[in-house]
Specification:
CATH topology of the largest domain: Porin
Organism: Celeribacter baekdonensis
CATH architecture of the largest domain: Beta Barrel
Protein name: Exopolysaccharide biosynthesis protein YbjH
InterPro entries: YbjH
Pfam families: YjbH
Keywords: Signal
CATH class of the largest domain: Mainly Beta
Length: about 700
């Protein structure tokens, strides 16, 4: 599989799942760098907030594949993978780079949009440049852009840096080492230094489908001319773009008077799934109180596994774990086994209780569970359900009238015979390794069998085995040159030397030490490369944005065959963690501690999670390992995303597809990949997440 086929397949798969755009215009202006721009030059206008863009650009000797995310209305970030044919003494260069842009001023009737940006920071610097760009639209058809660039964007038509007025040092740009060994370092001393040059261009939209772009480029393609025989004849570029109804674009470029290029771009709008309301069956209709009490209530059998209440909840994908009736209040403990949004599970449970319990039960206290522990208690009044079911503002009113609190100690008496529980499944799997230094796409495809046994509440035995069927993860031939213990750099050996693989084999115990506290203890084969013992404690108030956790692990490195044996390497590792929900879907995380190679440091993470569960994030790790000892990339960093199944299909199904993309995998800053860390286990039923997805309460 080629990288282009991969990106087109992945993008089209996600894109087709979103369906046609309808009346919404998803078109966006992307450059050959896959970022907001003209052809080679950037623009001052950002994309719509939250947009995710996949772009592929092909010329005779160059390929660029870019993932760009409009993180906020003002900020975008990009990851790019480029293939430059014959760049390194006849050998191909596989280059990875990051871009960043910030909107300084929004466009108004009389003022252009103004943005500042960095290209290829933290990479080799082949495309290293900085810019300030202004863009103004005139009517529905004409857009003009002008700007000033530095670095590569000042290699044609350059002049003395005007920032030299501030300090003479701005007039000189330090020579940059663009070798692989220097990747990952932020050479701030280069930013906005050296000569500057003007660029500009025009975009004319003939109709909603056809757009012409022309630009004056300040990029002389000096390195490509020297190393690849590129023929730069003119600074002028032009393109013709056809936009499809669903937002995808195809462009044909005329570049510098000597080459033709092709671009394909696909916009993905995470906040707009194909089925925003879902395609699951409608919830039970609320019955009048007078009709159901005599029909459904049996006080003697309600705590039995096969009671009418248990069966009614099971029909809605919920498992009744406990119930207590005291006066006019029913306290119910349940497990949500179907709905991605916990708010939807609460709404379904409340309807079932209203239809099953006697008329004099006026208050429902719903205790949500995850992995055997109660994670929150939501109190609803029966009268609110009845009065707000058809209210136009029923979602917000019902949330405002609900009460949310911790449930460290469940007040619901257990259901007889609910344990043990046994579940199993056989599914296909795809295990990708993206953008390594020698091959942009490696992946294995096969069959996975997984099973879990819960003999008692909170105790879970789990296992998964994999049988690869096809793939190329075992074709990597690059030996590890790491001076650190090879805690991750020999990961390819696990694909080469294994057939049937034990993915994990663990015993887990989840518990509640006290109010707002959660605990986890795990022992066994924890992940592909390590087995051992892991323990974690989390403090997470139901109604607060802050959570604090601590994790301690003792692990040994597994044999390459991924069966039961271990190698000689062992390590004690652990972290103290802080999590913060900033609101608006932005989540921050800080982990400080010891990593698998014995290095000490911290990992900084930021994620944006949309109300439907679609999540995009980035992270970086700095430890006491020097950049030189770390090797290529200088420090660990990457981007990650997670796409829920219900975002793709509209079906009420938990789970999804997620992956992490690192420019390079090294041994510094490597953390244990243990399953079921507590923060993500418990947060779905806490107030912030419930509020974000409360629109599902009535679904």
């Amino acid at each position: 599989m080629t990288i282009s086929r991969f990106f087109i397949g992945l993008g089209m798969g996600i894109f087709c799942a979103t369906g046609p755009a309808g009346a919404t215009d998803l078109r966006f202006s992307a450059s050959s760098y896959g970022t907001p721009g003209l052809i080679d030059m950037p623009t001052g206008s950002p994309w719509p907030d939250g947009m995710l863009g996949l772009s592929s650009v092909l010329t005779k000797d160059m390929q660029k594949y870019t993932l760009t995310f409009q993180i906020t209305p003002r900020i975008f970030g990009s990851f790019r993978y480029s293939i430059l044919n014959g760049y390194d003494a006849g050998e191909n260069r596989y280059d990875r780079s990051f871009d960043f842009g910030y909107l300084l001023m929004e466009e108004t009737q009389y003022r252009p949009a103004l943005s500042i940006g960095l290209r290829d920071f933290g990479g080799t610097g082949i495309y290293g440049s900085e810019y300030i760009a202004a863009t103004k639209t005139f009517g529905d058809q004409l857009t003009l852009t002008g700007g000033i660039g530095w670095g590569r964007l000042a290699s044609y038509g350059g002049f003395t840096n005007p920032l030299g007025i501030i300090d003479d040092s701005f007039e000189t740009r330090p020579i940059q080492d663009v070798s692989i060994n220097n990747t990952g370092r932020l050479d701030i001393k280069q930013w906005f230094h050296g000569d500057a040059a003007f660029f500009g261009g025009v975009e004319y939209r003939f109709n909603p489908r056809l757009t012409l772009k022309a630009e004056y480029s300040s990029d002389a393609y000096e390195r490509e001319t020297l190393k690849m025989g590129f023929d730069h004849k003119t600074p002028f570029n032009a393109s013709l773009t056809y936009g499809f109804k669903n937002g995808a674009e195809v462009s044909v470029y005329a570049l510098h008077g000597s080459e033709i290029g092709i671009r394909g771009s696909i916009p993905i709008t995470p906040q707009k799934p194909k089925y925003p309301s879902g395609i699951e069956e409608a919830p039970p209709t609320l019955m009048p109180r007078q009709t159901q009490a005599a029909l459904s209530w049996d006080a003697n059998s309600v705590r039995q596994k096969n009671s009418s209440l248990s069966i009614a909840l099971k029909d809605q994908g919920l498992t009744l774990e406990g119930i207590t009736i005291e006066g006019d209040t029913a306290t119910v403990r349940f497990v949500n086994g179907r709905y991605p949004a916990e708010a939807q599970a609460l709404g379904r449970a409340a309807r079932v209780l209203a239809n099953q319990l006697p008329a004099d039960i006026t208050t429902f206290r719903l205790e949500a569970m995850a992995n055997g522990v109660t994670t929150s208690r939501t109190t609803l009044r029966r009268s609110d359900l009845e009065s707000l079911e058809y209210d136009l503002d029923g979602s917000w009113r019902s949330f405002a009238r609900a009460d949310f609190e911790d449930a460290a100690h469940s007040e619901a008496a257990p259901i007889a015979g609910i344990y043990p529980k046994f579940n199993w499944r056989i599914t296909p799997y795809l295990d990708p390794s993206l953008f390594d230094p020698d091959n942009p796409v490696r992946a294995d495809f096969g069959v996975q069998a997984a099973a879990s046994l819960e003999p008692a509440r909170g105790l879970v035995f789990s296992a998964a085995v994999r049988q690869p069927v096809a793939g190329n993860l075992d074709t990597s031939t690059r030996p590890s040159n790491s001076v650190l213990p090879h805690v991750r750099t020999d990961s390819a050996e696990y694909a080469k030397q294994s057939d049937l693989e034990i993915k994990y084999l663990t015993a887990e115990y989840f518990f509640r030490p006290g109010k707002n506290l959660y605990g986890r203890a795990t022992v066994g084969y924890l992940e592909t490369m390590y087995g051992g013992v892991s323990g974690e404690v989390l403090w997470k108030p139901v109604n607060g944005p802050l959570a604090l956790g601590a994790e301690l692990n003792y692990v040994k490195k597994r044999d390459f065959d991924q069966m039961f044996g271990f190698q000689d390497y062992d390590i004690v590792t652990g972290h103290a963690s802080a999590y913060y929900d900033f609101g608006g879907g932005y989540l921050g995380q800080l982990d400080v501690g010891r990593y698998l190679a014995g290095d000490y440091g911290a990992t900084f993470s930021v994620d944006r999670e949309f109300d439907n569960g679609f999540r995009v994030g980035a992270f970086f790790t700095l430890t006491d390992v020097s950049f030189d000892d770390f090797g290529e990339g200088s420090f660990d960093k990457g981007i990650r995303f997670s796409v829920p199944v219900d975002w793709l299909t509209g079906a009420a199904t938990q789970g999804g597809y997620g992956t992490t993309i690192r420019p390079v995998v090294r041994d510094g800053g490597a953390r244990l990949d243990v399953r079921n860390r507590l923060y993500d286990v418990v947060r779905n039923s806490h107030t912030s997440e419930l509020e974000d997805r409360w629109g599902k309460f009535w679904r």
